[in-house]
Amino acid sequence: METCFDLERCRRTGFKVYVYPDSGEKSSENFRSILASLRSSNYYTSDPENACLFVPSYDTLDRDHLSSDYIHNLGAKISRLKYWNNGRNHIIFNLYSGTWPDYLEDLGFNLDEAILAKASFSDNYYRHGFDISFPLFGKTHPSTHGSGGFLKANYYPPRRKYLLSFKGKRYTYGIGSSTRNALYHIHNADDIIILTTCKHGKHWQSFSDQKCQTDNEEYDKWDYQSLLHNSTYCMVPRGRRLGSFRFLESLQAACVPVVLANGWKLPFAEVIDWSKASLAWEERLLLQVPGILRDIGDDQIMFYRQQSQFLWDKYFSSVDLIIRTTLEIPIRVVDDHPKVMSR
């Protein structure tokens, strides 16, 4: 922080955030929501000279070359921003980058000294005390006043119909992790329901294996929302990226997330103790999952579930809350450096 961030600027002006004027480029609904939340926050300033933190108005959320939201030549455009200064005191938001197999944090341009607030962050590339582990949320995530957690009463015992469930894609060719291909080993069609489909991408049939037909048929018989709300634990395995939409979906539904994604820096891990609301599992020990989950007592399950609702309501139910938490993380860092040499 001392070498890549001008802390003294924040001392002079207070923690104020400046958003650059509209770039004129296309932008996604999620990014527009983020900018709107920033501009409506108490930290916003319209005067860049009084700003501590700067946010480019170019949409950096989706850096997948095949996406319709991808902006070309983004590096050149951002580097020409008036206050860029090699990225110092800037923050870049990103939801989609870092795909299988290496999960490299390649946004297609040089971040320089900018803070990266990124979903699906790999611990190998996360700069501790500087970057921010951002949550992955969908296109329909509410901008403000999102729905609360779905747990309306603390029923006891807290166990639901299914012990553990998962419904999602698996990868028969090299675009995603092999972890999901192994999940069928713990499926028992009784209290552990693991459903995968090969049907994704335009050419999935060309890569089908001998399990695809039966997997696809079984997959279509089950409703995802029903599984989500009737399972004690929900599996959250890595796929094309380390993070998954299922993490926040499970959290809201009070279905305790069982994370199967080695090296994933969980959302807002800087301020949240996730051991109180989820279980992180070593992928190589998949076969041990059912036995361990069966041994967890009702009181602990209830604790996990209550924590999940608290965290959802406090940090994740709307884009406004996500942005407020994002800004509070660098504020803490600034406050932890009381003595700064003037530049």
From TrEMBL:
GO terms for cellular component: Golgi apparatus
Organism phylogeny: Eukaryota, Metazoa, Chordata, Tunicata, Ascidiacea
Organism: Ciona savignyi (Pacific transparent sea squirt)
Domain Exostosin GT47: 12-295
Gene Ontology terms: biological process: heparan sulfate proteoglycan biosynthetic process
Protein name per UniProt: Exostosin GT47 domain-containing protein
Record Pfam families: Exostosin_GT47 (PF03016)
GO molecular function: acetylglucosaminyltransferase activity; glucuronosyltransferase activity
UniProt similarity note: Belongs to the glycosyltransferase 47 family.
